[in-house]
Design brief:
By secondary structure, the protein is mostly helical. It is 77% helix and 0% strand. Helix 1 packs antiparallel against helix 2 and helix 2 packs antiparallel against helix 3. The termini are far apart.
């Protein structure tokens, strides 16, 4: 019972934060709500006993990607963007596409209502530790691609710092 309450809490928090990310006009507020949505998603992963995905979500997305977003927000001149008049002419197209998507989701739920079969959950003792398996494959089988990707990311980060550096 508590698992369901925690799941629905994080799910509602993630959906509400995602809606606020899109609807806020201030980029800093939008970034804060994006962090909230990412942390709520991490909470759902933790509730589902996916510890590795929880840690990746917190460290990589909520930590690293959001720091990158904050730097971009700081580097972009937001005062000019706030004073420009923005025209939103696609609200009718967005409304039609949203209605079509909602109809498709409702149809999928209606069709699968009678034939949806879910297996009973496995006990926590019988499950393999997924974090250890991911670490084994990452640092044993896929060691070379992992190191190449880390070097490429390091080069990209150094290039971004050099390009963002202001000339004195």
């Amino acid at each position: 019972m508590l698992d369901q309450v925690v799941f629905y809490f994080f799910a509602a928090l993630a959906v509400a934060s995602a809606i606020l990310v899109v609807t806020r006009r201030n980029a800093v507020q939008s970034a804060i709500f994006l962090v909230t949505a990412l942390l709520a998603t991490a909470g759902i992963f933790l509730n589902l006993n996916a510890e590795f995905l929880f840690i990746v979500q917190v460290i990589l997305y909520a930590g690293g990607i959001m720091v990158l977003f904050v730097f971009v927000i700081m580097l972009v001149n937001l005062d000019v963007a706030l004073h420009q008049v923005q025209f939103n002419r696609q609200w009718l197209v967005a409304l039609i596409i949203s209605a079509v998507l909602a109809a498709q989701v409702a149809a999928a739920i209606a069709v699968s209502r009678g034939s949806l079969y879910t297996m009973p959950p496995a006990s926590a003792e019988s499950l393999e530790p997924n974090t250890e398996r991911v670490a084994f494959y990452l640092f044993h089988t896929y060691m070379l691609p992992f190191e190449i990707a880390s070097i490429l990311l390091l080069v990209a980060m150094i290039g971004a710092v050099v390009m963002a550096k202001k000339r004195v």
